[in-house]
Design a protein that fits this description.
Shape: elongated
CATH topology of the largest domain: Cytidine Deaminase, domain 2
Largest sheet: 6 strands, mixed
Bound molecules: zinc ion
Radius of gyration: 18 Å
CATH class of the largest domain: Alpha Beta
Oligomer: single chain
Structural class: alpha/beta
Order of helices and strands: HHEEEHEHHEEHEEHH
Distance between the termini: 52 Å
Helix content: 40-55%
Number of domains: 2
C-alpha cells in the first residue's frame, strides 16, 4: 500500500486537518481580516510534513490558500514528494476568466495543482461557482457535515451571491442554477443574445445576460 492511499482513506485524520485549517482561517480574521481570506489549505506529504496557508491579499490580488501552502512547502523542501496531497476548506478554483480569476494572483489552483503532480485533494466544500473542471487529480469531499457547513459559511462570505443555489441573479431555480448559468454563459459568449432552447432556465439565463445583468 502506498502512503498516499493510507492518507486519503484516513478521513478522520484529514478531517482533523480541516478543523485546524478552519481554526487558522478564524485566527486570520481576528488578526488581520484585510490581509487574510476565508480559505485555508495545506500540503501534506507521505512523510507527514505539512505546510499550511490561508488565502492572502498581496498588493490587491488574492494569493489563494493552495498556492500559499504549496509555496511554503517548496520553501522548506526542494520538491513536492510523490504521494503528497492537498487538504483545503474549499475546492480548488478552475476558471480562467471569471471574477475569481480577475482578483486572483497567478493561474487557477487547478492548473497549479496539475503542474505540481499532486493527485489527490481533500476538500471541505465544493465551490459552486467554478465549473471549468480540468483537474488531473481526484477531489474527495469530507463527509463530516459540521466541517462542510463551516467551510461553506466561510466560502459564502465571498462567493458571488448570484451563484447561491436556488437563485441566479434573482431568477428562481428549480433544482440548482446549472441551467441558468449555462444559458447566461452561452449568451455572454455570443454578445448577450437571447436563447430559444427547450430549456426554460437556459433561456432565462440567456435573457439575464441579454438584459445586461
Ligand atoms: Zn484558487
Amino acid at each position: 500500500m502506498r502512503a498516499s492511499d493510507f492518507e486519503i482513506r484516513n478521513h478522520d485524520k484529514l478531517d482533523g486537518i480541516l478543523v485546524e485549517l478552519c481554526e487558522m482561517v478564524i485566527a486570520g480574521q481576528r488578526h488581520n481580516p484585510e490581509r487574510y481570506g476565508m480559505v485555508g489549505a495545506c500540503v501534506l506529504d507521505p512523510q507527514g510534513n505539512k505546510t499550511v496557508g490561508s488565502s492572502t491579499n498581496r498588493n490587491g490580488k488574492w494569493v489563494h490558500a493552495e498556492r500559499v501552502a504549496i509555496e511554503r512547502y517548496l520553501d522548506q523542501h526542494s520538491e513536492i514528494l510523490p504521494g503528497s496531497i492537498i487538504v483545503t476548506t474549499l475546492s480548488p478554483c478552475n476558471e480562467t476568466d471569471d471574477d475569481t480569476a480577475e482578483r486572483r494572483a497567478g493561474d487557477s489552483c487547478t492548473d497549479l495543482i496539475n503542474q505540481s503532480g499532486i493527485k489527490e485533494v481533500y476538500c471541505g466544500y465544493r465551490d459552486p461557482s467554478q465549473e471549468n473542471n480540468h483537474n488531473n487529480y481526484q477531489e474527495i469531499f469530507t463527509k463530516n457535515l459540521k466541517i462542510r457547513n463551516l467551510s461553506k459559511q466561510f466560502a459564502d462570505t465571498f462567493l458571488p451571491n448570484y451563484l447561491h443555489e436556488l437563485s441566479f441573479l434573482g431568477s428562481p431555480c428549480t433544482k440548482d442554477c446549472s441551467g441558468h448559468r449555462a444559458g447566461y454563459r452561452w449568451s455572454k459568449d455570443r454578445g448577450n443574445i437571447q436563447a430559444a432552447s427547450w430549456s426554460r432556465s437556459f433561456n432565462n439565463g440567456a435573457a439575464l445576460a441579454a438584459a445586461g445583468r
